TrEMBL record:
NCBIfam families: dctP, TRAP_S1. Residues 1-23 form the signal peptide. This is TRAP dicarboxylate transporter, DctP subunit. It comes from the Bacteria. Belongs to the bacterial solute-binding protein 7 family.
Length: 334
């Protein structure tokens, strides 16, 4: 038994040494829209540390949080062109490249993070990322942003009807525009980098995001009310430019792939820890927190069903069924 353990350790050391020996001096630019302190950026730091360790310092990952390299749309184009190597972004933005990604925008599909992990880490999540190859992007893993909630400056939202008339920023995709319209509100598509200023200037009344995003970006400074709707869960894709990826050796690809997977565990832990503290942060920041009653949540779900049915046609019934089957399997394994 001791010999087997020793052989395993020796083999692992040999593999690590081989990876270091095969790695070339490289620099990776890794960007996201969220600021320092956000769980996504914490995941980026962990990824950079792991890559440095596995490559013996030969592969350096430079981080550009807070949208320092531009909005998600321009970043996608830059990655396709090979001028930005990596990004972490909401899967919503990938629907413009591969229409099937809009399935992750369907409201009330996921009920908790555990089943989300099972879906994105399983065959369905891998199949979705594989569709990006032809678009010049490689999906390495999925990180967590969390469940989305609605904030605004006009009034507390205690019932579904309270949403009507509000001018809400949405991620610029058709389904997000549509579900906000369905609730009688006025959707305003906008990249996240513009949101704080738009709220501060009164150009929009509100927006919707997970509590960690609201807290990290200090939206409590420009918003009075938050309602815990938990209406949407968007996985965050960790992407690498295919142009850059194709220049890597197999050993370098393994270093980066393994680092992405290893950092995912840490990133999700941080996201879930901060989800609790973020609620206290926004309260301390002066926001009034409202939780919808079960009856109002069910009313909200009912309002969303026609939207889901409509977009199931354009996304593709096979993709919708694939997600529903993966969810059913995750729930059955509890």
């Amino acid at each position: 038994m001791k010999r087997l353990v020793l052989k395993t350790i020796v083999a692992a050391v040999a593999v690590a040494a081989f990876g270091i020996a095969c790695a070339q001096e490289r620099t990776i630019k890794f960007t996201t829209q969220n600021p320092e302190g956000h769980p996504l950026v914490m995941g980026m730091h962990k990824f950079a540390d792991i890559v440095a360790a596995k490559s013996g310092g030969k592969i350096k990952v430079n981080l550009f949080p807070g949208g320092a390299l531009g909005g998600d749309g321009p970043v996608i184009s830059a990655m396709q062109g090979g001028t930005i190597e990596m990004a972490s972004m909401n899967t919503s933005y990938l629907a413009g490249q591969v229409k099937e990604f809009a399935v992750f925008d369907f409201p009330f599909m996921f009920t908790n993070s555990k089943e989300a992990d099972a879906v994105v880490d399983g065959p369905f999540g891998k199949q979705m990322h594989a569709k990006l190859d032809a678009k010049g992007l490689i999906g390495l893993t999925y990180w967590e942003l969390g469940f989305r909630n609605i904030t605004n400056n006009k009034r507390a939202i205690a019932k579904v009807e309270d949403i009507a008339g509000l001018k809400l920023r949405v991620i610029p995709t058709p389904i997000n525009v549509d579900w906000v319209k369905t609730l009688g509100a006025n959707p305003t598509p906008m990249t996240f980098g513009e949101v704080y200023a738009a709220l501060e200037q009164g150009a929009i009344d509100g927006q919707e995001n997970p509590l960690t995003v609201i807290a990290a970006n200090k939206l409590f400074e420009v918003q009075k009310y938050v309602t815990l709707t938990n209406h949407q869960y968007n996985p965050q894709s960790v992407l690498i430019s295919k142009k850059f990826w194709d220049t890597l050796s197999p050993a370098e690809k393994k270093i980066i792939s393994d680092a992405a997977v290893e950092s995912t565990v840490y990133q999700r832990q941080q996201a879930r820890l901060q989800a609790t503290t973020a609620l206290e942060t926004v309260k301390k920041g002066g926001m009034q927190v409202t939780e919808l009653s079960p009856a109002e949540v069910e009313k909200l779900r009912e309002k969303m069903r026609p939207v889901i049915a409509k977009f199931a046609v354009s996304v593709g019934q096979d993709t919708v069924k694939g997600l529903q089957d993966a969810l059913a399997q995750a729930r059955a394994s509890k």
